[in-house]
Amino acid sequence: WPSSSAPHRACSPDPSSFYFGFVNQAHLNAFCLSSGPDPCHNGGSCSDGVDSFFCDCLAGFQGQKCEEDIDECSSNPCKNGANCTDCVNSYTCTCPSGFSGIHCEHNTPDCTESSCFNGGTCVDGINTFTCVCPPGFTGIYCEHDINECDSKPCFNGGTCQDSYGTYKCTCPQGYTGYCEEQVDECSPNPCQNRATCTDYLGGYSCECVAGYHGVNCSEEINECLSHPCQNGGTCIDLINTYKCSCPRGTQVCHLGSVSHGPCSGLPQDSQATMAPFSKACLSSSAGVHCEINVDDCSPSSGPDTLTPKCFNNGKCLDRVGGYSCLCLPGFVGERCEGDVNECLSNPCDMRGTQNCVQRINDYECECRPGYTGESHGTLSHLRLIDYLLWCCSQGLDGATCENDLRSCGALRCLNGGTCVSTQKSSKCLCRPGFTGPECEFPSSSPCHSSPCYNQGTCQFAKEPRSIGTALVGR
């Protein structure tokens, strides 16, 4: 510290709002004495200094003695024209209508779902809204339907029909849109089959090419409706013409494709038809009519001239458009090419003791190895089952191998009878219709049923198998 004899010195104001002074230690002054008034205002705290004091101000105040209230509204914190009210260490904003928030920074939404009608779009404003209306509506809230027909929007005599939010023009025939555009009935082209379309007001017309008719030329003219083809020829309809597909066996005179025959001497490239089955050519402009019958049995007709029409000596019968074959007995097929297999009907023994041997128009039954029996030739004309040939294994005999030689001895049961052997004797059990010790006699003559074919004469004999052989002439 300086000595007491040192002179006093004045000090400049300090930025911290207190003063310093050099005083003699003995003359130190106390400004913040509790007995006097507090130099700091508004709740500021006083602190002594050297020949001075300073005030520690509360928030919101300033000045050497905290005597000044800080104006928080000086920075204009309130937005959108709000009024700022200064308070101690704070402020409040009084918002105008349509705004909200601490600083009135938010625009209050004014649009709701029901603000605008008829599909209008609501545009929010400041404390208000506006409605952008769709076409056909007007008014602040788009609540009014505009009558578009008042402006007479339909042309060429069209009738205007006002509807909710729109309108419709009913045009006279030939117009479209707002009846200002003429309809092009030829687009897209309704005419078919290369026809030419001509448009006119309210309609169109089609100019058909040859061979077609109808409103749109969609119907082909059927030249076959007049049945121009003869002798069973098939008419094939073509565009603006036809042709005949002749059945096999018919042909037509056409100079250029036929170098000989009744059509020789006709003018070049002319067509002629022949009267049915004659040799006189008649001039014709109707085309191919299939009038000439060709002898299909002739070796000169057809590509297969080197082979017979019918095989195995079959007889050829000419037809219109073809031929048929009359086959000899034992042959079948369209051209008698197939030999009838008489063995397919299994005419031999059903018991599997015989083999059937195929012959031309006939067959023959042979006993298989291990079986015996009498061979009487073929049985192709035999019809009674009782007269069939049976082949018996060793120790058996009879028409159906019914006799057991080992027990019945010399007793032979005929006509399907069965030998019954006992300890004392043997006897035959005959089939219905037969009687006798060996079933050799018929109860009634089998000739009553006329079993013989092709005017054959039936004669009863004791040995049926001999009768069967005699019937077929073997």
UniProtKB/TrEMBL annotation:
Gene3D superfamilies, alphabetized: Laminin
Superkingdom to which the source organism belongs: Eukaryota
GO CC, one annotated term: membrane
Boundaries of every EGF-like domain copy: 28-67, 69-105, 107-143, 145-180, 182-218, 220-254, 293-337, 339-374, 404-440
Transmembrane segment boundaries: none
Location in the cell: Membrane; Secreted, Extracellular space, Extracellular matrix
CDD domains found in the cross-reference section: EGF_CA (cd00054)
Disulfide bonds: 57-66, 95-104, 133-142, 208-217, 327-336, 348-365, 430-439
Membrane topology: Single-pass type I membrane protein
A molecular function GO annotation: calcium ion binding
Swiss-Prot/TrEMBL keywords: Developmental protein, Differentiation, Disulfide bond, EGF-like domain, Extracellular matrix, Glycoprotein, Membrane, Notch signaling pathway, Repeat, Secreted, Signal, Transmembrane, Transmembrane helix
One Pfam assignment: EGF
InterPro entries xrefs: EGF (IPR000742), EGF-like_Ca-bd_dom (IPR001881), EGF-like_CS (IPR013032), EGF-type_Asp/Asn_hydroxyl_site (IPR000152), EGF_Ca-bd_CS (IPR018097), Growth_fac_rcpt_cys_sf (IPR009030)
GO biological process terms, semicolon-separated: cell differentiation; nervous system development; Notch signaling pathway
Keyword Protease: no
Statement: the UniProt record of this protein carries the keyword RNA-binding: no
Protein name as it appears in the record: EGF-like domain-containing protein
